[in-house]
Amino acid sequence: MSDIDKLRDQIDKITLEIIRLLKARVELVKEIGSIKNNLGLGITNEERERQLRTKVISLCKEIGLEERIAATMLNFLLNESVKIQSSGKQTHLSIFLKAKSLEQQGKKIIHMEVGEPDFYPPKIVKKALGEVYDKGFTKYGESKGMPEFRAALARKNSERYRTNIKTENIMVSSGARFSVFLSISSLLHPGDEIIIIEPAWPAYRENALNASIKVRTVHTTLEEKWEPSTKEIESMINPNTKMIVLNYPNNPTGKILPRKIQDQVVDIAIKNGLYILSDEIYSDYAYKEWKSVLSYEYNKSIITQSFSKSHAMTGFRIGYSVSSPEIIDRMAKLQALCITNVSEPIQYVSLKALEADTSDNTKTMKNRLGVVIQKAKTMRLDFEEPDGAMYLFARVRNDNFDGSDFANKLLDSGVAVAPGEAFGDYQNFLRISACQPEQTLIEGMRVINKVLG
Ligand code: PMP
Questions:
Q1: Between the CA of residue 71 and those of 52, 153, 239, what are the distances in Å?
Q2: Which residues are CB-contacts of 162 (< 8 A; sequence separation ≥ 6)?
Q3: What percent of the chain has pLDDT over 90?
Q4: CA-CA distance, 309 to 255, in Å (whole number)?
Q5: Phi then psi for 217, rounded to 5 degrees?
Q6: Please, what are the domains in the chain?
């Protein structure tokens, strides 16, 4: 055997040994997962991860291994553990799909699990749909979106936030969901870390896991009015930390951060050179003062927007991102790879939708949320009144309450709600969506109250 063959032989043995150890680790992770499940514990435990991280770093020092390599490997292992332990988790989408399938079997369901306004898109959308054929929107287009549409979005945002946004700062996408995927997958790399403030819309975490990015969770509580500790955020940041996600008005809590806290969080991100992914799709449903991250004019911020909620156009799958031209370029490359470009007929229709006044949607949603809040006050629920969005995130006054069991049971009575565990470690919470007419919401709340017992 030559020298290189002998060394390669050792490499093979070590690699196979690592795989054997991985198998043993996976088995332990599964066992711990079922114990956590039985005890009603959440999957991620930041303190436990911190302890393991400390041990790994001290071993690196002892054996002289570069910390960066070990940290990347550890993040990979931790992510795999989360994926394994999350496999049976209920999300609001699983309840939504179950509700849809019950409907197909003829059952009547009141949808209070999904953030989908029941009202129609603006009238102008109907007219524009009839025009797309004659206007010739039948071909491939630019991956960043139609220039005319991007320019209109740039103007709209410049006027609204009094900033100087240009066409090159805009990229059209198939809904904010796809913008979130594009920003996480094109800007971050395996082993990088992302900070997510929970409760949170589940797609941030799922996208990070999908791209092998480690999620660091800032857990917020009802008692602290869903406000994150800026100290905790700062203490999590290390050289691997690359992005923080903000989503205000928030899904599921409806929270808008007090100005001072938001300023501090943005400041921390800027000082540490982090990307800020600010998902602002509920900005038209802000019922008190709210500040867009666009106003900070930070060149590493990515703002995601959508027509889904503001224009009741969920099914059209249309949204956009606002960021620096460099970031837009990177995201557009991935968009081109995935879908070439967003359907031009839909872009044209959305361009036209910009002409509509949608302020009635905001009033309607605020009133509906008011109805849900009034009913909830008479029930065994604790909550902070939402400052925006279209949901009530409430804790059930029952120590043994399990939101997932309840949501499944409630479906039998014809009402769908989202279990709290979809948004983080909130097993005894429910998210109740106010996207139905008032009488339907009243009936839904009556049924929820009855099933709560
Ligand atoms: N962001 C948040 C916070 C959401 O709640 C949702 C949908 N519920 C989305 C993004 C997805 O929006 P879109 O329909 O534009 O993909």
A1: 11, 41, 10
A2: 295
A3: 89
A4: 17
A5: -100, 125
A6: 20-85 (1.20.59.10), 92-119+359-452 (3.90.1150.10), 136-353 (3.40.640.10)
For the chain, how are helix, strand and coil distributed in percent, rounded to 5? 55, 15, 35
Q: Which residues line ligand 1 (CB under 6 A)?
A: 115, 175-177, 201, 247, 251, 279, 281, 306, 308, 314, 319
Task: For 384, list phi and psi in degrees, rounded to 5.
Answer: -95, 135
Residue linked to tokens 């001290």: 58
209-249 pLDDT per residue, tens: 999 999 999 999 999 999 999 999 999 999 999 999 999 99
Between CA 256 and CA 444 the distance in angstroms is: 26
Q: Which of 177, 207, 303, 321 to mutate to test the pocket of ligand 1 (most atoms within 8 A of CB)?
A: 177
Q: What pLDDT score does 93 carry?
A: 76
- How would you classify residue 388: left for phi > 0, otherwise alpha for psi between -120 and 50, otherwise beta? beta
Whether 440 has a pLDDT exceeding 90, the answer reads yes
Tokens of 293: 């991250």
Half-sphere exposure of 136 (CA within 13 A, CB side): 0
pLDDT digits (tens, 9 = 90+) for 151-171: 999 999 999 998 999 999 999
Give yes or no for a contact between 51 and 106, defined as CB atoms under 8 angstroms apart.
Answer: no
Measured in Å, residue 110 CA sits from the centre of ligand 1 at 20
Phi-psi region of 174 (alpha: psi -120 to 50; beta: other; left: phi over 0): beta
